[in-house]
Amino acid sequence: MIPDRQAAAVRKIDITPLRHLLQLGTKRDATALVSSLLNDLQITKSGFEQAWKGPDFAALRANSHVLIALAGTIGDTDLHGVAQHLNGLAHGQSTAEVTDMKSTTMASLDDLISVLLHLHGTGGT
Q1: How would you write the pLDDT of the chain (125 residues) with one tens digit per residue?
Q2: The whole model's pTM is what?
Q3: Taking Cα atoms as reference points, which of 112, 117, 108 lies closest to residue 7?
């Protein structure tokens, strides 16, 4: 099981893969991509917030699947691993283990959103 982490700790995220993608297009393209990723992450975060109320395993699986793709595209390997682990737990429908993953998943997701908000503020560069 992936250990829970303290919410106050902010992790370093290497977004080198995302930076490579951003360099492929214009500054406008980069801004649009970061904006789209932020939107997708916010939607996923909202989906998780609703899914954990049940828990709704189908919604947890769907949102973790999206997060696997987004974190992988951006290069956040830690969150990618958390999302994969959560997806497996949601498939197994283990309420206790899924619930244990909530704070780690949400804090890691918030960290990534913060990094992208900063990146968005600098024009995606």
Answers
A1: 333 333 334 678 989 999 999 999 999 999 999 999 999 999 999 999 999 999 999 999 999 999 999 999 999 999 999 999 999 999 999 899 999 999 999 999 999 999 999 888 875 55
A2: 0.86
A3: 108
